[in-house]
Design goal:
Mean pLDDT: 90
Low-confidence stretches: 483-500
Number of strands: 23
Number of helices: 16
Number of domains: 2
CATH topology of the largest domain: Glutamine Phosphoribosylpyrophosphate, subunit 1, domain 1
CATH superfamily of the largest domain: Aminohydrolase, N-terminal nucleophile (Ntn) domain
């Protein structure tokens, strides 16, 4: 999961890009970057939150009426600043790209680029591989004057060669912005517009939550297998390159997306409320007595509200959340996540003392966070601590851009629900079912017939994903968690202007 945004307008777009990344910050807190273009490229990127990476001086230098931005959550490559996006290649024309998702055939493509096409790769990121595949395909068109047809023809090769999940945006020097979504539409991508006099400006982003804040109106989702090209005159061209098989990631509605976003026609907040309503049926059957329903902030609030309404039990906010601590699930490394938890959540003792409480979370991944939360609630004086997960047990890795890389890190991969209950210390443990989760989303859009739900079922939409490949991708991910950047490639990021690229 990462956040991407592209804006094409008639004046400098840096304010829109910066504000848009602030709104998308929940999708990645490891690094941020922006690339703009006027007569040359201007780039600023680094590790850290958006507000820490960009300052007035750097923002003032990011000139141009079109640009792209990225917030990073590391799932491929390391969390080094040299892996931050957007990435850039000089040929052809100069292309910068930002990507959300994971290429499942990344190792094979990387080897092909290095050994067959003699491309130089400076990072371990699959996003750099995707950029080079696009650049290679466009270069093969040998266009003297770039036209939409050249881009659409190039993307036929990209869709053919690149497997997995990729919602991506690219900025081509002197020509425009390209956006595309993989044939399964696993990661979200949405299109918006706003009026500028008698003309229109465009935005493409990971989530629609960015649009109201920037004054854009939602147009539609980018279709799976579709390519959009916005030229220098701000004319929008689109083409369905391959037949799409919409299979959006269920985890977007469980945890990843902002509650006010609408993805593939389904509002995230309403889907989460329905998850809680469905979960209430199980809890009613158990016969347990509950004094209050307490969400684990922030993502579980909607599910907890729906559950409490169905049970007709009071809803209470039992935790104060420190707003200055990042989302713990997307922090790089389990040690960092565990250390951050007690700083992040502070129980309100009066809501727990001598009470039988039902804690509601969006999901249980490794189990460590759930265990610590149950311990905190018991220390606060709770009489009974019940725990409910809106999502089903996470039993398998996700190869499409969520940091669930190995079976060994998932408590439900080799533990029964009763074993998990004992491990986290709850008096009772409830999980939503995969049927209820599907229903919660499909209720908002009946045309969605299938999902990317492998982490819950072990069944994946792209046919190339096998058990062997999952284990291999997990090994690569774990190896790269300790990766250090290649010192020989560091000069590429040390300021100055190289190949028309203005590094800030």
């Amino acid at each position: 999961m990462c956040g991407i945004i592209a804006v094409s307008g008639f004046k400098d777009v840096i304010q829109d890009l910066y504000d848009g990344l602030i709104v998308l910050q929940h999708r990645g807190q490891d690094a941020a970057g922006i690339m703009t273009y006027d007569t040359q490229f201007h780039l600023k990127k680094s590790n850290g939150m958006v507000r820490d990476v960009f300052h007035m001086k750097s923002l003032a230098r990011l000139k141009g009426n079109m640009g792209i931005g990225h917030v990073r959550y590391p799932t491929a490559g390391s969390s080094s600043e040299f892996e931050s996006q957007p990435f850039f290649v000089n040929v052809p024309f100069g292309i910068s790209l930002a990507h959300n998702g994971n290429l499942t055939n990344y190792p094979e493509l990387r080897e092909e680029l290095l050994e067959k096409h003699y491309r130089h790769l400076t990072t371990n990121s699959d996003s750099e591989v995707l950029l080079n595949m696009f650049a290679l395909a466009l270069e093969k068109q040998r266009p003297k004057r770039l036209k939409p047809e050249h881009i659409f023809d190039a993307m036929k090769m990209v869709f053919k060669e690149c497997k997995g999940a990729y919602s991506a945006i690219a900025l081509i020097g002197g020509h425009g912005i390209v956006a595309f979504r993989d044939p399964y539409g696993i990661r979200p991508l949405v299109l918006g517009k706003r009026r500028f006099g008698m003309k229109e400006e465009y935005i493409i982003a990971s989530e629609s939550t960015t649009f109201p804040a920037l004054g854009f109106e939602f147009v539609r989702d980018v279709h799976p297998g579709e390519v959009i090209f916005i030229d220098r005159q701000n004319q929008l061209h689109s083409r369905q390159i391959v037949k799409g098989h919409l299979s959006p990631c269920l985890f977007e509605w469980v945890y990843l997306a902002a509650p006010d976003s609408t993805i593939d026609g389904v509002n995230v907040y309403k889907a989460r409320v329905r998850m809680g309503e469905a979960l209430a049926k199980q809890i009613q059957k158990s016969g347990i007595k509950i004094d209050s329903v307490v969400p684990i902030p922030d993502t579980a609030r909607a599910a907890a509200a729906g559950l409490a309404d169905k049970l007709k039990v009071r809803y209470r906010e039992g935790f104060v959340k420190n707003r200055y601590i990042a989302r713990t699930f997307i922090m790089p490394g389990q040690g960092v996540r565990q250390r951050s938890l007690r700083f992040k959540l502070h129980p309100i003792e009066l809501e727990f003392k001598n009470q039988s409480v039902l804690l509601v979370d969006d999901s249980i991944v490794r189990g460590n966070t759930s265990k610590k939360i149950v311990e905190m609630v018991r220390e606060a004086g709770a009489k009974k601590v019940y725990f409910a997960s809106a999502a089903p047990p996470i039993i398998a890795p996700d190869p499409y851009g969520i940091d669930l890389p190995t079976f060994g890190e998932l408590i439900a991969a080799d533990h029964s629900i009763e074993q998990i209950r004992r491990s986290i210390g709850a008096d009772k443990l409830f999980y939503g079912t995969i049927e209820d989760l599907r229903w919660s989303v499909q209720y908002g859009n009946r045309s969605i017939k299938q999902f990317s739900e492998g982490c819950f079922t072990g069944k994946y939409p792209t046919p190339d994903v096998t058990l062997k490949k999952l284990r291999r991708l997990g090994e690569i991910r774990n190896d790269c968690r300790g990766c250090e950047p290649d010192p020989e490639s560091m000069h590429e990021y040390e300021g100055g202007e190289q190949g028309g690229l203005n590094m800030l």
